[in-house]
Specification:
Beta-Lactamase, 4 domains, six-stranded mixed sheet, elongated, binds ligand C2E, binds magnesium ion
């Protein structure tokens, strides 16, 4: 209000002066002192009226101005406080119009630039990478939300700090601000609570003429995960994930270094090559997951057993290698290294707990020395491997030192493989028959067909040497089919010649069973030779049965439905439980010869054989004992109710003609082996 009065002040003065003049002249006129005073007084009244009008107008104008000023002041205050949203209050009076318009333009511009600034800020804050805007000398002017989160500081705490001060002290010396502002590098930042974070830091300069906006932008990306992945990849490339020991590549690398050091310092290096015996059976019987668990446990045992300075590696599946270094050159190291190998074998021989079952495993170890046996990684491994192979050939669960002839054996294996390929075409394969004798009658009730390879210059090669090679090369499929054809042909001839061969059994490999067309092929062979499948028996090992048991069951049921008789070969050497075997349509159980061998002297084996016989019978199976060599073995089997036996006691496996002669003898005079039996022997005498 006082401001309004200030605006109309002159008009009020004019009004007061006019009023005074009008009153003074009026009084003079009334008293008659001055004749013209009436006229003056009249003029004064007119002037008074005029000044009154003027004062009122001034009052009105002043009030309008005042309200406009207030409105502008309010708008200015709002703008000053950063509120650009509401337009400048227009008063409707054009007295301040230009000022209002100018102010409104200013507000709109400010609002626009604020919107841009907020927008930019929200973009910065929504970035997952940490962003720092700095002055040209690296002082932080802005840090986005991700930067604050990564470092654990509020933005205000970061502002004013040098970007270098945010790095871990260990990397600060290497940090060149100028360079960093124009490249991408990996560095390490340090958080408020002292943690270090590896980051990829990308710098770029802000190029502008306005010195106020010059500076750098640094974008820091947390690469902890990537670093971890890199470390993991590096680890995976060098270490075996399952057993956590060096893999083949890393082991060879370490061995190379060790050999070089050994050669320089004149010390001896020993390489022990370990391979589990029959490990495939563990995988086939219990599945690969269990097999893996065995390897894990094995590696743990090895780590605990071997000297701390030794290098352990997993070279493949169930193959491990151990490098012992720093051995004296002048002494024979075979005794201490042999002791180590023995300790390792003892560790391996401790029971493994698999699916609530105790399983005992063994291994074979081959040992080679550097420089004695080889001076480079490849030859040293090859020689230790050859020695290991030898240990395996000797029955496993043992160690062997390398000797030069061993490599010759490996070379021979290769030659054998290539010769085996031509064995079928060259007619080098022959079948030998081993009679099966019924213990109740002493009669031949069947025979097992056993394959021989008659390689010129090598004599008869036993199946134990070439069947594994045939399986490795898949030649077993051709060979197996040849055997089936041959057996059917022989069977036909035996029958034609008047022999009663009973059931002829043949051995089947897992690979044959896995062959998609196996059943079709069997049918076609039987048809070709006019042989009923009921005349034949297929021998399948426990391990073969348990490998992929679902599929095997389906196949065996089909074979059984065709009329084929099925038997489990080498029973007792696998790990199958009886309940697992029960599901298969098996008619015969063949006790492995290793249990029969010393059944008269070994109480454990005697119990085992007795149990197998009882168990087989309780399942309605025929029980056959293999590898019977002595009369006392036969007696034991007889006493314990075994059904049939086969073995050297009844003669070596023989040609079909010889079998025919035995059968013809049987036809003429009764049981050819009756004299070997206690019960039957009392009745029958050899012809
Ligand atoms: P298998 O089926 O267990 O055959 C029994 C093995 O024991 C035969 O060895 C036989 O000659 C041998 N043997 C027989 N009686 C005695 C004895 O009284 N004492 C001793 N110590 N051994 C005896 P062979 O012929 O060397 O065959 C070894 C294995 O080769 C066979 O074991 C069988 O698994 C496999 N095999 C043989 N022929 C074939 C075949 O045609 N196909 C396939 N896939 N495997 C075959
Ligand atoms: Mg057999
Ligand atoms: Mg057998």
């Amino acid at each position: 209000m006082s401001r309004t009065f200030r605006h109309i002040g002159p008009a009020l003065w004019a009004f007061a002066a006019t009023l005074f003049v009008a009153l003074a002249t009026g009084a003079v006129a009334l008293w008659g002192h001055w004749p013209g005073s009436l006229a003056v007084s009249a003029a004064g009244i007119v002037a008074l009226l005029g000044s009154t009008l003027l004062a009122v107008r001034s009052w009105r104008n002043a009030r309008a101005l005042d309200q406009a000023t207030d409105a502008l002041t309010r708008s200015a205050l709002r703008i000053g406080q950063g509120d650009y949203a509401r337009p400048v209050e227009a008063h409707g009076d054009d007295s301040m119009g230009e000022l209002e318009q100018a102010m409104e333009r200013m507000r709109a511009r400010l609002r626009q630039s604020t919107i841009n600034k907020d927008y930019l800020r929200s973009i910065l804050d929504s970035m997952t990478d940490a962003v720092f805007l700095t002055s040209p000398d690296g002082v932080v002017k802005t840090a986005n939300a991700a930067a604050c989160k990564m470092l654990g500081f509020a933005e205000e705490e970061l502002l004013g700090r040098g970007i270098v001060s945010l790095l871990d002290p260990s990397v600060r010396a290497d940090f060149d601000l100028l360079q960093a502002a124009q490249d991408t590098r990996e560095t390490v930042v340090r958080t408020r609570d002292g943690q270090t974070i590896p980051v990829s830091l990308a710098g770029s300069r802000v190029e502008t003429d306005d010195p106020q906006f010059q500076g750098n932008i640094f974008v820091a990306r947390n690469v902890t995960e990537r670093k971890r992945a890199e470390r993991r990849i590096r680890y995976l490339a060098r270490y075996d994930t399952l057993t956590k020991v060096a893999n083949r590549m890393q082991f060879q690398h370490l061995l190379q270094q060790t050999i070089a050091r050994g050669l320089r310092s004149g010390r001896t290096v020993a390489l022990l090559y370990l391979d589990m015996d029959r490990f495939k059976e563990v995988n086939d019987t219990f599945g690969h997951a269990t097999g893996d668990r065995v390897l894990e446990v094995l590696a743990e045992r090895l780590i605990r057993t071997v000297p701390q300075t030794a290098i352990l590696g997993r070279l493949a599946g169930d193959e491990f290698a151990l490098c012992v270094h720093g051995l004296p050159a002048e002494t024979d190291n075979r005794v201490p290294v042999g002791q180590l190998a023995r300790t390792i074998l003892n560790e391996v021989a401790r029971a493994f707990q698999l699916n609530q079952q105790e399983v005992f495993l063994t291994a074979s170890i081959g040992i080679a020395f550097c420089p004695r046996d080889a001076e480079n990684v490849i030859d040293l491994i090859r020689n230790a491997d050859a020695a290991m192979y030898h240990a395996k050939q000797n029955g496993g669960n043992t160690f062997t030192f390398y000797s030069p002839e061993m490599n010759a054996a490996a070379v021979e294996r290769l030659i054998l493989k290539s010769k085996l390929r031509r064995s079928v075409e060259r007619d080098e394969l022959v079948i030998r028959y081993q009679p099966k004798v019924a213990l109740a009658s002493g009669q031949v009730v069947g025979a097992e067909a056993l394959l021989r390879w008659r390689l010129p210059g090598h004599g008869d090669i036993p199946p134990s040497r070439f069947i594994p090679l045939a399986e490795e090369t898949n030649l077993i499929l051709d060979i197996g089919e040849w055997v089936l054809n041959r057996v059917c042909m022989d069977y036909r001839q035996l029958k034609t010649a008047g022999g009663e061969p009973g059931r002829i059994s043949l051995n089947l490999s897992l690979r044959q069973l896995r062959q998609a067309s196996f059943i079709l092929r069997c049918r076609s062979v039987f048809r070709r030779h006019g042989v009923s499948p009921t005349a034949l028996e297929l021998e399948i090992t426990e391990t073969t049965l348990m490998a992929d048991s679902k599929n095997t069951l389906r196949l065996l049921e089909e074979l059984y439905a065709m009329g084929l008789h099925l038997s489990i070969d080498d029973f007792g050497t696998g790990y199958s439980s009886l309940s697992a075997l029960q599901q298969f349509p098996i008619g015969t159980l063949k006790i492995d010869q290793s249990f029969v061998r010393d059944v008269e002297h070994n109480a454990g084996n005697a119990t085992l054989v007795r149990t197998i016989i009882e168990m087989g019978h309780s399942l309605g199976m025929i029980v056959v004992a293999e590898g019977v060599e002595t009369a006392s073995q036969l007696q034991f089997l007889e006493e314990n109710g075994c059904d049939q036996a086969q073995g050297r006691l009844f003669g070596e496996p023989c040609a079909a003609e010889e079998l025919l002669a035995t059968l013809q003898r049987q036809g003429a005079t009764g049981a050819p082996f009756g004299h070997l039996l206690r019960r039957a022997g009392a009745l029958e005498r050899p012809a």
